[in-house]
Amino acid sequence: MSNRIILGISGNIGVGKTTLVERLAEHFGWDFYKEPAEENPYLKLYYEEPERWGLHSQIYFLTNRFEEELRLSNLGRSYILDRTIYEDGEVFAKIALREREYNTYLKLYRLAVRYLPKPNLIIYLRAPIDILIERIKKRKRKEENLISYEYIERLNRAYEEWLKEFKYVKVVVYDAKEDIIENIESLISLIEREIKSLTGKG
Q1: C-alpha distances in angstroms, 152 versus 123, 155, 159?
Q2: What average pLDDT does this structure show over 48-74?
Q3: CA distance linking residue 156 with residue 133, whole number of Å
Q4: pLDDT (tens digit, 9 = 90+) per residue, 183-199?
Q5: CA angle, residues 22, 25, 26, in degrees to nearest 5
Q6: Using CA atoms, how far apart are residues 50 and 202, in angstroms rounded to an integer?
Q7: Where are the domains of the chain?
Q8: Which residues are identified as catalytic?
Q9: Cα distance between residue 103 and residue 118, in whole Å
Q10: DSSP state of 119
Q11: Which of the 8 DSSP states describes residue 6?
């Protein structure tokens, strides 16, 4: 693919985004952005006290993503996003923040979106909540020990609402209830077909 492609991989916590992004980056030879969940100094605090630390955590994610995506976009090469900025602003922040906080956050979010190139395509990985919880427990990240079933359920509902309303970029939904790596070839083929249909090149 000679034209620059920006590919977003989206989905709930535990669905397998980061694993997929790393495999796709290796396959295509593209750069990628990995969400810095483990580096976020507010994330564990947020899971412990959501109302107190929600804004801190969401601002950290937003500013980190903006800086890194801006750097990648300036390179002029294709790259892959581990979650998109739209999910930061329209899914996670929406359920993490109180109304006044969210309205303040939206000003920064909308400004960031204006300065970043939009993806050519977003692949949304969808999986049942029980499977997401199982995968979260299996990967044993310390900051995720406090994640509840109810929180993942709220995120799932927020994602489904987002999918209905979001029209800015084409989103392809992929059933990720089975192991993604075991089905990596079929998923790569799907992505290649979708990119070809958008760009006319494969």
Answers
A1: 19, 5, 10
A2: 92
A3: 12
A4: 889 899 999 999 888 87
A5: 90
A6: 45
A7: 6-199
A8: 82
A9: 22
A10: P
A11: E
